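seq as requested:
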Amino acid sequence: MNEYLTLFKTFFKIGMFTLGGGYAMIPLIEAEVVDKHKWISKEEFLDLIAIAQSCPGVFAINISTFIGYKLRKTPGAISCALGTALPSFLIILLIAMFFHQFQDNPIVASIFRGIRPAVVALIAVPTFNLARSARLTWATSWIPIVGALAIWALGVSPIYIILVAGIGGYIYGNLIKPTE
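struct tokens:
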């Protein structure tokens, strides 16, 4: 029972102190799960991120569920998912209860305008760290760039990008450059 409480508290803390959504949680989750507790390796973490991004649903819930399941099966997945979701639920509940009192406040509007660039940075840093962990080189960096541009500029569905990248990786890894 104690290990489930530890999982819940760890992910509750991550959920409580992360602004900017699931992707901004990546460095905190990595610091807790990989570095501090050493529950999984960096390579396993990177694989779980890829799986969580590929699945439908909220990224933060997906990654916490996968980590919890890997550690303690279904009860671990439930503990981690609840720990991740509960802080956001409580904060949104409080905001909804009091939003009408401060929605037109110019100070609050200024605070939100200031937070936006910080959220972009919170998402950019894990992106660069993931690129480093995935061992992207200058020769392979075109793949995520083209994928991002196709999604942003051409409106290509991310599902197609994932499918094409998976098929391309399979073809490259198994047919073009066989492992030694």
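Residues 59-102 form the longest helix (44 residues).
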